[in-house]
From TrEMBL:
EC number: 7.-.-.-
A UniProt-annotated Pfam family: Rnf-Nqr
Localization (cell): Cell inner membrane; Endomembrane system
UniProt keyword Zinc, yes or no: no
Predominant location: membrane
TM helices/strands, residue ranges: 22-55, 67-87, 93-112, 124-147, 183-202
Entry annotated with the keyword Transport: yes
Membrane topology, record value: Multi-pass membrane protein
Function: Part of a membrane-bound complex that couples electron transfer with translocation of ions across the membrane.
Name under which the protein is recorded: Ion-translocating oxidoreductase complex subunit E
HAMAP family: RsxE_RnfE
Length: 232
């Protein structure tokens, strides 16, 4: 029986693709200069991850093992193309902001990794839930990284939200503090590396604290067996 609580825990925290597996770091560090870009890329990746997991699970019994990886890549490429066209049609500003990193979702190791490790061995519903949790965990890391960089770099939050949600979302922009000159280190990829390292360190500290709070397993008393030899 599938343990959905364990799947959720793995995707959101214990085996988070961004903080633990360190997969998909290229787009994660390149386009997370703002929270809007981070959410856009995260949602796009999550949709592809869910769709690819479902399709891979449905065709897993009909694809020979020798060609499974090329077939998985073709499925992922088709889904990425569909998502790219949708973003181009309904969120053109976001499409321009994400640039080349949108079609590069095809090469994201998270998607092909989950297709091979989980979707190809489980039913469609479990595969879809795994894709949702892994995608959500990746999106949360993107959002935290993007929000931190945006606040440090230009003192705003949700800048350019209209590119993702439409013209009405311009009112969502929050001016956290007034910045006369943008903090370039936070806005450029080196700043992303620094913030990402701090997030990983924070997760390790939290994991250590949680482990210390867990009660130690009771030590089972050892039984010593003595062998008695009867001497006649």
């Amino acid at each position: 029986m599938t343990n959905y609580r364990e799947i959720a825990w793995q995707g959101l925290w214990k085996n988070n693709p961004g903080l633990v597996q360190l997969l998909g770091l290229c787009p994660l560090l390149a386009v997370t200069a703002t929270l809007t870009n981070a959410l856009g890329l995260g949602v796009a990746t999550m949709l592809v991850l869910i769709g690819s997991n479902i399709l891979v699970s449905l065709v897993r019994d009909y694809v020979p093992k020798e060609i499974r990886i090329p077939v998985f890549v073709m499925i992922i490429a088709a889904l990425v193309t569909a998502v790219q066209l949708l973003i181009n049609a309904y969120a053109y500003g976001l499409y321009l902001s994400l640039g080349i990193f949108l079609p590069l979702i095809v090469t994201n190791c998270i998607i092909i990794g989950r297709a091979e490790a989980f979707a190809s061995r489980n039913n469609a519903f479990s595969a879809a839930f795994d894709g949702l949790m892994m995608g959500l965990g990746f999106t949360l890391v993107l959002a935290v990284l993007g929000a931190t960089r945006e606040i440090l770099g230009q003192g705003t939050l949700f800048d350019g939200a209209d590119q993702l949600l439409g013209p009405w979302a311009k009112t969502l922009t929050i001016q956290v503090w007034q910045v006369d000159t943008p903090f370039l280190l936070a806005m450029l990829p080196p700043g992303a590396f620094i913030v990402m390292g701090l997030l990983i360190a924070l997760k390790n500290v939290i994991d250590k604290k949680l482990k210390e709070r867990q009660p130690e397993a009771a030590v089972q008393p050892s039984v010593t067996r003595a062998r008695i030899t009867k001497v006649s």
